[in-house]
Amino acid sequence: MTQLQPGEKRKLSDFLTGPRLRVQVTHDLPQADVSVFGLDGERKLRDDRYFVFYNQLQSPGREVSLQLADGRATFDLDLAALPAGIERLVFVISHDQQPMSRLGQLRLSVQDAQGTERAAVPLTGTQFTAERALMIAELYRHSGEWRLAGVAQGFQGGLDSLLEYFGGQVAGNQTPAAPSPVAPAPASLPAAPAHMPPAAPAWSAPVPPAPAAPGPGVPTGAAPSGQGSSLSDFLRASAEQDRPGDVFELESSKMLEVKVNGRVWSKLGAMVAYRGRLDFQRASTLSDLMGGMRQGGGMMGSLLGAAMRMGSGEMGPLVSIQGQGVCYLADQGKEISIIRLQGDTLNVNGKDLLAFEDTVTHEITMQRSVAGMVSGGMFSVQVRGHGMVALLSHGQPLTLRVTPQEPVFTDPNATIAWSENLRPDLRVSQDLRSMFGRGGGETLQMAFQGSGFVVVQPYEEAAAMDHLPSH
After folding, report:
1. Cα–Cα distances in angstroms (integers) from residue 128 to residues 258, 354, 393, 399, in the given order
2. Shortest CA distance to 91 belongs to which of 125, 47, 135, 133?
3. Which of 69, 149, 286, 466 gets the highest tally of CB atoms within 10 A of its CB?
4. How far apart are CA 293 and CA 202, in angstroms?
5. Shortest CA distance to 237 belongs to which of 469, 5, 54?
């Protein structure tokens, strides 16, 4: 059975035969609603008859039908019968009042026509905060075949925001327009079920079609809106889903496809193949030095940091990839996660940064405490701005919430990223020497205090400073 992580995609033909299948969503959030949006090639809802939800249980030709039960929504699909204008089926869950963080478990199961599970997208509420609507996964056409992609993209504004993101409008907020000869008139959907507020609006597609730019209800974590200081920022991956204009796409959980039209940046030695007219240039180490100086490390500290980086081999200079073409990046079989920043900042262990768009600003920074010496060879990379960033991890990463009441302590060799406002400090504990880290000698811990998140991996990478005596 195939299990997809957020941002990962697979061909349906890898695990299914035939166009008929079943998608079942199970969850433990009472009174949550599960639905599916049928979208066109521009990811817009042009015909609201292909918005299948609690009050519209099937599409016009019964290509999509929905059965609801407590904590379970079952969609029966006939992909071959869908009209040519429906290019994507996006499965979502929403709640009028409760955030997705209240979820215990959420699972989207893809089954064959006989009900045997062939693939799944599992999520938990710990990956989200205040979002009241969530895109779980999508089926989409690409190069004449259907694919499945994990999404895990949240919207704080609930279903209203999600609808506006897809180019729809909430009934009552529409601007009057003449009927379009192309798009059908909006359907008049029945009233909401009993658990919905009496004033809950119906949903409709715009007539004529709305412009592509999203309205005010853009999502809060993955594309196109930004990352904040929350748990969902890292795990809510925004992998490109074969959409024109996006740069990064997960070909598998361990292989990143990069569409280059200009310039992107990658980790040295990460390229495994490319096609097109591309030029690869190793970046100057001057940026390393200046990064340290801007963070108060001074010239001596900066020189020491650069020397340690070159000596340890943990992170050589970055590589700029310029031109037009496609390249494929990977690093020692590590898992790849994609984040889309929107004017925000993230601290990343240097050896765990795979690639980022040219629109993202980066600084290789000296740590203010000795904790940074253990986590990544005396340095980390701070990425900020607008664009996509690809991170690496040995195995699937775990994101932990940090609050003023509950600080988090991590193994430096397993720590890969943390939120902008957190500043790790080093703690030494002799009591835990056999429990934390590799054992033997004093145990080093990174202490994160404040509000934010820290990301760890299920693996201890040897850091450049491991050979130094403990103190």
Report:
1. 27, 24, 20, 10
2. 135
3. 149
4. 56
5. 5
Can you read off the two tokens belonging to residue 275?
């096609």
pLDDT in the model for residue 365: 67
- Per-residue pLDDT tens digits for 225-279: 333 333 344 444 333 344 434 688 888 888 999 988 889 999 988 999 998 889 9
- The 8-class DSSP code of residue 426 comes to E
CA torsion angle 403 405 411 414 (round to 10): -20
pLDDT tens by residue, 429-455: 655 544 545 444 446 778 888 888 899
Are the CB atoms for 67 and 24 separated by under 8 Å? no
CB 192 within 8 A of CB 199: no
Low-confidence ranges of the chain (pLDDT < 50): 172-245, 285-315, 368-378, 433-434, 436, 438-442, 464-471
Cβ–Cβ under 8 Å, residues 167 and 209: yes
**Spatial separation of the C-alpha atoms in residues 189 and 28, rounded to whole Å:** 27
**Does 190 sit behind a cis peptide bond, omega within 30 degrees of 0 on the bond before it?**
no
Token output for 446: 């990174």
pTM greater than the 0.70 cutoff = no
Specify the residue for token string 């658990």. Answer: 195
Burial class (CB in 10 A: 0-12, 13-18, 19+), 443: buried
* Closest of 327, 345, 332, 331 to residue 265, by C-alpha: 327
Q: CA nearest 127: which of 101, 153, 96? A: 101
Residue 431 CB neighbour total at 10 angstroms? 9
Q: Are strands 105-112 and 415-419 parallel, antiparallel or unpaired?
A: unpaired
3 state SS for 383-422: EEEEEEEEEEECCCCEEEEECCCCCEEECHHHEEEEECCC
- Maximum distance among all Cα pairs of the chain, rounded to whole angstroms: 76
Query: Of 110, 105, 96, 90, whose CA–CA distance to 29 is shortest?
Result: 105
Query: Peptide bond preceding 193: is omega within 30 degrees of 0, i.e. cis?
Result: no
- Distance, in Å, from the CA atom of 214 to the CA atom of 225, rounded to the nearest integer, reads 10
**Amino acid identity, residue 13?**
S
Tell me the C-alpha distance between 447 and 428, whole Å. Answer: 10
Read off φ and ψ for residue 11, nearest 5 degrees.
-70, 135
Bridge-partner residues for 169, per DSSP? 204
Nearest to 167 by CA among 197, 195, 130, 206: 206
CA distances from 33 to 137, 187, 277 (A): 15, 20, 48
Instruction: Write the CA distances from 423 to 315, 346, 347, 370, 382, integer angstroms.
Output: 21, 12, 10, 11, 12
